[in-house]
Amino acid sequence: MAPSGTYAKMTTGIFIPTRYAIILIAAILWMSALQIKDLSQAYREVQKKNDGSVFLTSKHYVESKPVLRNPKDQQQCRFYFAESAVAEKSGMGVFSAVGLHKGEDISFPDICIFVSQPPRKWTHLHSHTWGWGTYFGQYEGSHSRAACEGVHTTYNTMPDNMINTKILSPLQPTTAGVTRTKPGAGAISHHYGIRSEATTTIQAGQELTIYYGDWEFKGDPLFKPQRKVQDLAENGWCIDHIEIKQSTIDGAGRGLFTKRNLPENTVLTPAPLQIFTDRSIFPKVNGREQLYINYCMQTEGSDMMVYPYGPGVNLINHSMNPNVGWRWSDKSLHHGEFLKMNLRDFWENVWPGSIILEIYALRELVAGEELFLDYGDAWQEAWDEHVANWQPPKDAENYVYPEEMDDTETLRTVKEQEDDPYPESVMTMCFTPLFERDPGIMEWYEDEDAWGQSNMVYCHILDREYGPDGTEKYTVELIWFHYNSGKPLTEKDLTYDPSKNMKERFVDTNVPRRAIKWNEKPYSD
C-alpha cells in the first residue's frame, strides 16, 4: 500500500507517515515518555516440571499409560525462549517443553512488516528480516523483504537431515478488521499467519530448528539440541502465556491476550534488542527502510534506537490504564553490564539479543484479558491529532478485501466475468505444483512438498468443468514472471489477453477449487 502522504510529529522530532504511526506498530513506538529503570529482580514463575514422558498434542495424549486431560495440563507452559543448544554463540532458541507429534502446529502465528523495494537485497535489521518466500511478499516488489517477529522466525538452523520443524507461510493477506474506512488504515501488517509444524516426533526439551539453506559448521559432531525442561523453566522465558486475537479496541487490528490466569509480576514475553547508533542507519532512499524506525524505541535525550523483537511484542495496544510494563531482564542472557560501559566499549561488545527487556504484568491478570502498554502522552496527542484530521480515501467503503471473498464458491471464467465482473481490488491466485517450467499446457497434480505460497501465482480462470462426483475442476492461465528478475508485475501483465497463442501461455488443467485463492490485485490499493 502506498503511504497516505500525511505525517504526525512526535515529541522526539521524528516525522512518521500517520498510516504507520498507529496502533499495531505503535506497540513499541516512541517510548520517549517511558523511562526504563532498573527494577527489582524479576519474579520467576517456575512451571510444572515435565520429564518428557508425556506427549501433549492438540488431539490426544500418547504415553506409557492412559492419562486424562485435566485443568492443570492447560496451565503447563509448552514453549520457552532460552539460550540455544545448537552451537556456541547461537544466541536464543525456541524449545518445546512437551512432546509433539509430526504434523502438529507450534505456538501462535508470526507477523511480518515488509518493505516493498529496499535499496538492496537485505536490510539493516540483517538476520531479523526475511525474503518474500517466508511471508507471501513476492508480488510486493522485485526484492521485497520483511521484519518477521514472533516465534517461528527466531528458530535456529541445522542441517536439512537434522531439523524438526518447517515454516508454513500464510496463503492470504488479512486486515484484522482495519479497513480503509478507519483512521488506522495502513497501520497494521497484512502479512500475518506465519506458523510452523513438526516434521518429526519432538521430545520434551528439544530445541526447534529449521533449515535456512547451505549449512556450514566446523566443530564437534552434531547432535539434536536439547535442554532439561526444568532448566528451561528456571533460566528461560515461557512464551506460552499469550496468544494473538483481534483487539477489543475497534479499529486497532490485532492484540495480545493472556491464555491463563497469571499473578502480578509474571513475565509474559521477552524482548531482545537490536541496537543502532541513531536513525541515520536506515537509508532514506525512497523512504523505504525508514518504515522500520516506527518499530524502534528511543529514550528522551538519546540518539540511540533499539529494535525489540520477540513473541507478541509488536501487538500490544495502547491504554492510559496499562496492565503490563517494560523492565530489564535479570536472566543471565541479558548482559546488563554492557549498560554501564562507555559508548566505545559498549559498541565493541554488544550484539543483537545481548540486551533484553521483558514485558511483565503490573497486576494480576485473568485468562482472555487483552494486554495494554502506556505509549506515553506524546503518542496519545499525535494519535488524537491524526484522528481529528484524517479523511478516508475516495470510495473506501466499496473496497473489497480478499478475506471478504468466498473461498468455496464456484469461480466465474474470464468470459463470464465480462457480464459479471469481480471487484477490481481482488484477483485469483492459483497453486501450481511445477514452478520451474516452459510455457505450455500441464495437468495439475497433488504435490504436498510443493504446496505453499511460493508456488502461488496470479491466474485467470479460462474454463470450468465438473467431475463425475460433481466437484469443480478448472483450466487456468498462470501469470508467470520470475521473482528475481528485478521486474515486478505490471498492470498489462495482469490483464487477460484473449489473442495470445495457447502455446505461449502457462496453463494448468484439472485444477481443484481448493488450489485457487483470492488476493489483493496489484496496483488496486
Brief digest:
Keywords: Membrane, Transmembrane, Transmembrane helix. InterPro entries: SET_dom, SET_dom_sf. The protein has 525 residues and is mainly beta.
Structural class: mainly beta
The number of distinct β-strands equals: 28
Please, how many domains?
Answer: 2
**Total DSSP helices:** 7
How would you describe the shape?
globular
Q: Can you identify the CATH class of the largest domain?
A: Mainly Beta
CATH superfamily of the largest domain: SET domain
Give the terminus-to-terminus CA distance: 6 Å
User: What are the low-pLDDT stretches, counting only 5+ consecutive residues below 50?
Assistant: 1-73
- Global mean pLDDT: 77
Oligomer: single chain
Proportion in helices? under 10%
InterPro entries: SET_dom (IPR001214), SET_dom_sf (IPR046341)
Organism: Amphora coffeiformis
Protein name: SET domain-containing protein
Domain SET: 240-376
